[in-house]
Amino acid sequence: MAQSQEEILAGLADIINEETGLEQEAVQLDKTFTEDLDIDSLSMMTIVVNAEEKFGVRIPDEQVKNLQTVRDAVDFIHGAQD
């Protein structure tokens, strides 16, 4: 069953917290991964792998560079669920 965007955001915030130590409240839709949240490419790949497992979706490598903001990731995951 597809999860709501709010559920995806909360799950993504948990994953980012585990990987970077950032507070879940800091993970908001309008934040960029690199500038606002200071997530490097290695951490981003770990976050992507964990998100794929958590949400049961596939995020192709060529898509990852298009995920600039938390909203981009939430929208992609939401759309990729069946």
Describe the structure.
It is a single chain. With 82 residues, the chain is mainly alpha-helical. It is 56% helix and 0% strand. The mean pLDDT is 96.
Give keywords.
about 80 residues, globular, Non-ribosomal Peptide Synthetase Peptidyl Carrier Protein, Chain A, mainly alpha
Present the secondary structure layout:
Elements: H1 5-20, H2 41-55, H3 61-64, H4 70-80
Helix pairs in contact: 1-2, 1-4
The general outline is globular
Span from first to last CA? 7 Å
Using only C-alpha atoms, the radius of gyration works out to 11 Å
What's the count of strands?
A: 0
How do you describe this structure in short?
This protein has 82 residues and is mainly α.
